[in-house]
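writing this on my phone so excuse typos. first protein, seq and then structure
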Amino acid sequence: MKIGKIPTKLLDEVIISPSKSGVKRSEILLSPNIGEDCAAIDFGGEICAVSTDPITGTSDNIGKLAVNVNINDISSCGAEPIGIMVTLLLPPECDEAELKKIVKDIYESASQEGIAVLGGHTEITDAVLRPVISCTAIGKTKNRRIISSGGAKVGDLVIMTKYAGMEGTVILAGLDKLKGKIDSDLINRAKSLKNQLSVVKEGQIAAELGVMCMHDVTEGGIFGACYEIAYCSKTGIEIEADKIPVLDETKAICKFLNINPYRLISSGCMLISCPNSNSEKIINELEKNGIKASVIGRITDGGKYIIENNKRIPLNEPESDELYKA
């Protein structure tokens, strides 16, 4: 199989479908589905949201990436992240200095986001070739409200925050093959995007304004996340490619590497589906808080399409992320 996420149909058949015939408990309010990144558990007070994700595509900045990627899932379901558990697997070649750097990044990133490191496991193993982190993030709702990736409704507008391919840009900027080929100032600007990969703030704002659907953009990029929202919501979707913001740094790196920024891992970017009547209020509030927001499409009752160069192109299920081509 290809490196990256398992194809949607295989994921549904092998992972999601068996879960539907498993144990059913009344406490479980949100369970596995395509595009649904969190589970929600009712313990009688506020609802507990949990999510898990690894960092496997790079060994640079993995402490910070691990924190952001996991709490972004919690924020996307409208919950407040409160803590994270970390499993850190290191190859035998890893030295104490590298371990200390990774752990320092984890704690610093957690402190910046106001969350606790709750525990986990650290191990040296020859089962990995480079450091691998897998985390579980835990959050709680406000007023027992959970927002689903499958909450989009026909007629909704699709709002995107920030820029496409930001996480991928950070990772790719560290490649040796770019040295001497792309301006060093541009590379440094690309690396600095690591400080913009959280979507906690936009998640809080959108949740307070009553949106019914949010989804943070990770592997598969903007196009992949748009497909997942429509799939999960059982709707169609039309995305206008020329309305998707892409930074010059991302454009330059993607052009050099011959990869598609719209299918590049994009933590730091969130998709929000909301009625047209509420879109202006949401965009204004996001931008008031320094978060760029753009309307890039709409939810339909038809198929899944990209509008590009005045052509209507089918939006296919996510394949291996463009990151792995580089």
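second protein below, same order as before
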Amino acid sequence: MAKHITDRDNDYSQWYLDVIKEAKLADHSQVRGCMVIRPHGFALWEHMKGALDGMFKDTGHENAYFPLFIPKSFLSKEAQHVEGFAKECAVITHSRLKSVDGGVEVDPDSKLEEELIVRPTSETIIWDSYRNWIQSYRDLPILINQWANVVRWEMRTRLFLRTMEFLWQEGHTAHATKEEAIEETEQMLEVYRTFAEEFMAMPVITGRKTESERFAGAVDTYCIEAMMQDGKALQAGTSHFLGQNFAKAFDVKFQNRDGEHDYVWATSWGVSTRLIGGLIMTHSDDNGLVLPPKLAPYQVVVVPIFRSDEQKAAVMEYIQPVIDTLKEKGITVKLDDRENYNPGYKFAEHEAQGVPLRIAVGSRDIENNNVELARRDTLEKNIVSKDGIEDHIETLLKQIQTDLYQSAKDRMEKRTRSVDSYEEFKKEIEAGGFIYAHWDGTAETEEMIKQETKATIRCIPLEPDTDSGACMVTGKPSERRVLFARAY
């Protein structure tokens, strides 16, 4: 176990924070509830962003940028939306400061005519723009994504999982028909599922949220739900069918092919730096961060071992062709030839930072035409021949990606079960994990279960289910089981 990382079994919450600290991903900011994302953490976000951005563009979307500040009146136009975000909004009331006795204070003469809201999400200001952009069916669809920061005034925060300011992407699309908008909503959910499973190596359940859990202003909210190592659920991405709610609120109409005027149909969808928290809690161990190769800031670290400049030169001459060939294969490599740190320190640091593979090379390796190769996920170390090492590493990285996914999937399946009675449910929920159970479809029963057990309906799974039955609480008819869990 790494010296400064708490054992997961003793204190999971502290373990999570220790991994972030030792991996140098982020620090707490002097601003309460905010974080400083350090270079290693931001590089991880950039890799996530790059993969997702490519997937968005492959599905026809373009990037744009909209203002950080939203007039207060905009939030008042969609009743459900403002109700959902009212308690989380940061409000700007004045435009400047003035110097007073060597300090500063708000200039009372700079009070704004209309207060501005620091962006909690961008539906309102984007649909104000769409009103000017859309006149005819020829202007549709509009498929726009924005990479941005948002602010939600959270009272209880945790690095990456829930902070007052966080980074995210938000897609906002406009369509001529309901069917097109629903198809878009489902398509983007599938993009998120693919990214989570194929890049993050994190298995997820796809489903729809209950009415009480929907995004404020949405007709339907779809989500991906992942299971963390402690058995809690994490909502890892959402895609919303907004119907015509925002089009009506902002009077966005278009002339259809029949010459008639109708309101536009809308979607929005997003994921955030919360994914980094999900990645940590899906794969990491008591030695630190564990990263899937597809998202690691660098996939291989090379640590040359030497005691003199002459030895260093010999080791570099030996290993440089390997580094060059790996880079030609598209594998990202970091050379750690720092002279003021010993190899043991370097090994521990890269282990804590989750580098998938480590190559160590010294004089003895040169004599035997070998290298030492260490896997981060299994902590296995092997002496392997330098001959053909590049192909071996390429194969091994793919295997690590597959193994991480399979390990997480096996864990999720092992901790997922079905129950029929409420007494059984209350017992099983204490053990954590995912529970499938029947629910009568009412908000009253949903709220009662939440209050009594701290478990929520994570989603109504999209997978077909013919297992009809009776609600575990009320005994009323239930067409299918829904997914319950305690969650972050």
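The chain has three domains: 12-283, 300-403, 416-485. thats all i got for now
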